[in-house]
């Protein structure tokens, strides 16, 4: 019986772990599938579009040729005028004229574009040109952005739990270190002795009856240490609590005889996991300075790695790019030249956006508390003072 019960317990434990991880894996897998489907769609629509040279493009080439002919051999005299003319000419140019659609809208390039859409970064260097692509982009963002925010909220709960437990453990360790520093040798031994006595008074392995207490009291007369009235009272209370404690009913495993019950129980557990999404973020209580420090270290690590991939970036430029990306600002002035590296970088971006999201949530809570204090202070100042009239 013991050999058969052990594999059954292992199976039930695996099932519990599976149903606990299932909601989180479901969200992430949905986002990955959504990104790949969008990449296939946009690479087919925008990558296979026909490049038509309109009249504006021909006019641009003619003006550029005229400027090149006007430039004399003495470059120093006409350099300033030529620079102004060429700047005005290129300001009217459309970037689409200089882009090959098949190169820009490859599968990896389209996947890069999809990630910039549902993460709301939007660098601006890649955008749909065809009318069908623009309509599909709006529809794609309409469902992709809520899905991305759902993934951020769900994964944010996990990070919030890790940060809360780490911060609490750090505070406990800090308090123990401070207590050990303040505690000297003689006083510390006395405190530990008093603490051990208090624990021996409170913790009782087996609650005693009144007769057992009286017998122990009579038997303890020959010993130097005797039970006091407080100890007798605590023993009686422990015995009373043991009698009044409700009987714990062990849940019966009925899955072997009736699998429908186990299936319904697993489904209800999964639904409870879905309902708990976002609850841990509400409970998070970590100093905002600590979150800013975590963000700074997180961005600095990527800023030290990115220059090895992107040769046009140094540490400062990479730090600026990561900050603009994780905050979903996405100016587009600094961008990655190799979209394939963005795929390996996407996991970093999603986790970083979750950390920034948690920091924004903490900052929002602090602002709300500050506004409440300011409004309460102003309301107290405006309250008329009570006048005491003589009788």
Automatic annotation (TrEMBL):
Residues 96-159, 294-364 form the Potassium channel domain. One of its GO terms (cellular component) is plasma membrane. It is found in: Membrane. Gene3D superfamilies: 1.10.287.70. One of its GO terms (molecular function) is outward rectifier potassium channel activity. The keyword Ion transport applies. One of its GO terms (biological process) is stabilization of membrane potential. The chain crosses the membrane at residues 17-42, 105-123, 135-153, 286-306, 318-336, 342-363. Keywords: Ion channel, Ion transport, Membrane, Potassium, Transmembrane, Transmembrane helix, Transport. It comes from the Eukaryota. It is a multi-pass membrane protein. Belongs to the two pore domain potassium channel (TC 1.A.1.8) family. This is KCNKI protein.
